[in-house]
Each structure stands twice: as C-alpha cells, then as structure tokens.
Amino acid sequence: MVADPHSYWDASQPVVTHLDWAVAVDFSRRVLDCTAVLSIEGAGVLDLDTRNLDIASVTALPEAVPVPYEMGTVDAVLGQRLRLVVPPGTLALRIVYATRPESTALQWLEPAQTADGTHSFVYSQCQTIHARSMVPVPDSPSARITVHATFDVPEGYTAVMAGTPGQISHGGRRFSYDVTQSIPAYLLAFAVGALVSERIGPRSLVWAEPSMLASAAWEFAEVETILQAAESVMGDFPWQRADLIVMPPSYPYGGMENPQLIYLTPTLVTGDRSLVNVLSHEVIHHWTGDMVTCASLEHFWLNEGFTVFGERKVTELLEGREVAELQAAIGRDALDDDLRYLQDTPELTSLRLHLEGVHPDVSSSWVALEKGNLFLRAIEESVGEQRFAAFLRDYLDRFRFRSLTGEEFVAFAEAELPGAVDYEEWLHGTGLPDGTPVSRSRLLDRIRSLGNTLPEAALAGSWGATEWQVYLGQLQSPVDTDLLSALDDAYSLTASRNSDVLAIWLHLGLLSGYGPAVPASVGLLATVGRLKYLKVLYHALADRPDTHQLALDTFAAHRHRYHPIAVTVVSARLHPA
Fold first, then answer.
1. Which secondary-structure segment (H or E) carries 177?
2. What is the DSSP string of 27-39?
3. Which of the four pLDDT bands, split at 50, 70 and 90, describes residue 117?
4. Residue 239 and residue 225: Cα distance in Å, rounded?
5. Percent of the chain with pLDDT over 70
6. In the Cβ-directed half-sphere of 192, how many Cα atoms lie within 13 Å?
7. Residue 577 above 70 pLDDT?
8. Quick one: pLDDT band at residue 141, thresholds 50, 70, 90?
9. Strand, coil or helix: 237
10. How far is 38 from 15, CA to CA, in rounded Å?
C-alpha cells in the first residue's frame, strides 16, 4: 500500500479493523470525553494520528494491561503521532481521552448561532484530515474500519450519526449507531442539537432544527427519485439508508457524503428545488468516495471526478441533456477560474497531486472535480457511452470497499480500454489537454450569444437558477455598471434567494465596481459559512484597494461563526505566504 503523506499510519504495522467509540458530549467545556476501543490484528509498534487530544490512558485487552505510549512533536499539518507498542495476544486497545475546544473536526455553536436559537449545537467535519482531532485512529483514506458508537448527551438533545441507528436508552440521553461496512476515518460524522426528523422516502429521513424541518422536507422530497436514477447509473445502492441533515448556517460545504447521513448546507433550501443537484452529488459519492475511495488526498480526483460525472448523468436522466450540459458549462467556468488562480502553482492543476508538507484543505480546488470529470468524459467520448457505462460498473465492482491510487485506476483503464485517451497526460499533466471535451447545447449557445447585453424579459423570464448561472458566468468582467444596474432593476439579482446565483452576481459586481455589491457581499458573508462563497467574495473584496481593509474587518468580525476549516482556507487567501 502506498504511503500517505498526510498520516503517520503505516500499513506494515498492526491493523486497526474496528472502532467501538463511547462519547460524552459536554457543551459547557466544549469537549468530548471519550473511550475508543480499537480492535487490533497483529502486534508491535503502532502509530496513530492525533491532533489536540488529551490522552489519559492506553490499555491492551483482554488482559487490561497498561500500554506505554509516546506523543510525538506537533506538526502543523499532521498533528501529533501517538506511538505505542501492541503486546502479543492483544485483541483491542482501550484509549481513554478527551478532545479540546480547538479541535479542528468539531464546531461548537452557541444557541444564537443556530437556526432556532434555543439549544447549543455541535457537529463534526472530518474531511480532509480532521478525524484525528476527534479520535486517535489511522486517519488515512486507505485505512478502513467498521464502527459502533454511543453518544451520551444532555436532556433535550438528539445525537445523529452516519450509521444505522440502534437503541436509545438512559432516559433518551444515550444514542447508539453502527457502521457495518468499512469506512475511512474522514467519514466519521455526527451532530448533536435540537434535531427532529421527517420521513421523505422509503430509505430516507431528513433531520433539521424544528423551524427548518418542513421547508427541508419539501426541498429534498425527491431523494428517492434521485437514488433510483443514481442506481441506474452506478448499480445497487451499497448502504442501508440515505438520511439527510440540514446543517447550521456555518457549515463550510455544500454537502458532505457521509454514508447514511448526508450533510447539506441550509443555503440549498431555496423553496424551488433549484439546487438539489448538490444532493445528487452527495448521493453519487456513496459509490465513489464512500465505497471506492482514493488511497490518499493526492488522488482526491478519484472521489470527486467520478462523482461529478455520475451527478451529471443523474441530471440528464431527471432533467434532460440540455440542463446537464448547462451545469457542465458552469463547472467548466469554475474550473477555468481556478486554473487562472493557480497559474503560479501549476503543479496543483494536475490530477495526481504531490502534497508532502501541504495541508489538503488549502490545496483543494475545482481541478479534482471538474478536470477529473472531463478526464472520464474524454474516455466516454472515445469509446462510446454504452461501453463506458459497462466499464464504470466493472470499476466499481473491482474496487468495492477498497482504496486506490490514480495510477491503479490508469492501469485498470488501460487494460480495459486501451488507447482511449492519453492516460498519462490526463493524470500527470498540468492544465487541460488538447481536445478536452466541451459542453454543447442549443440553450447554452443561445445564452452565450447574448454576450454583455441585457436579456429580454421574454427569454430571461423563463430562466431558472441554472440558466442565470450560465449567463452571469459568461459575462466578461469588468462589466459596465449600467448593464449591472439594468439587470438588477429588471430581475432583482441582489435580492436573489438562490445563494449560488447571488454569489456569482456579487462576485461579478465586486470585480466590476458595482456599488450595491459591496454591502450585499458583506451581508452574505455575515450569514453563511459555505466556503464556495467565502473564497470568491473575500478574495474579490481583498483584491480591491478600496475594499481590502473591509475584507479584513469583515473576516475579523465573523470568523468566530465560521467552521475551523473555513477559517484556515480564507486566512490563506487573505494572508498568502
């Protein structure tokens, strides 16, 4: 197995196969008091990943023998190595420990920071390499475990986890869950708050704070339709359930594919189901990312590129080829923006990354998603849709519940589809290869033909969020502010309820010197924590001399509301090394 530059885990050491995790949630101290029992195969030196954990004791089972351990020096990227020696005959290690308030996997929210304002809230976000600040484990995508977990919570709180629910005991204050299929540690996920649920499909509940439940249940009511469309592309759903949870506004991502409990940002609850493609993306991740996983974050495109490819297939099935091609065009615009942003670090535009000493949170971009998708689309265009569909199923069967590298994928593809594309150029080359697939649709051509002109009401009046994103994305900045004013007067874009449309519009306004975009951007940055918006708006504000200090002041005022991952990423953009 290839070494992971983001983990102290070593595949030659004893193997951790299962985690039995007992968690007591303490909101007053902002810590988890935990016992982790790690089932072990083998004996000898074992290195585990940790960050900001206070270890109280380590004991070998079944004999309850104390095990000496050593905490390594703190590394800014990796955290701290926990080294211990597993005695012969050991079946499991019991580690008693507590997290710290500064755990990068956990966000602790005061009631005022939640949707309802009645209860505190805590949730985990372990991707990319943050599980180690919640539990001492091999924190590498290549190290897979099964899990049993119990959560003791205060009265009036509910604990939900990405797993199959078991008993609720101790007066409704202890919740248990099982993960019976092996997962990498970054998919460990739970939330504790004033949560309620509603069934929205035979395999799905949606969880939310009470004030959000009805709107969330309506917004995501088509989850079973999405699941069935995904199965027609990817094969039988490999997990027991597909529950959803609407996260607090600070959640840094659009969604997270935690198997059996998909996290979703509240910015998707628009009242018109215009952003449910994000749910399609997270559903597809249950096959590519959760079931078949990259071996390390240097191969992250295997998780994301396949998922974008599958997401667009689902969109084509449910909404038609035209809409799928519009979404592909939006994705290509985002990729082109990132390629320009990364022009001074072209190595980060390769699919196969080399991230020794680099934190994966700050190296993430649209390259893994959109260039990875274009790689697969290039193969499909070369061999034909039917042949590629069969290849995709074979790939998923071959690597089912396994982790692999980009090189292993290329070897598999070259054996199954020899000469379809220049595999090495796609995997290792920078930028985009010659002949990269392009989006094609009559509607796309019509929108793009408008250029920097005001669309007539007869045309734009029928547009949904996707069409508006394409139109705004193709405007060449800086745009004349008279045109922006006319657009705002005609279509109220600064007041858009669709956050994706609003973020693109505000970004365009900032680049073009459109006055209303400045206070509206500050307003959005004060209310949401989604990185997709924070990155572009903070960057645009900071790039302008007249708003540079405003960007710094806005970040200083609201960083306490953002997730630790978001703080790291935005800080890197506002204060580049």
1. strand 174-184
2. TTTTEEEEEEEEE
3. very high
4. 16
5. 99
6. 27
7. no
8. very high
9. coil
10. 10
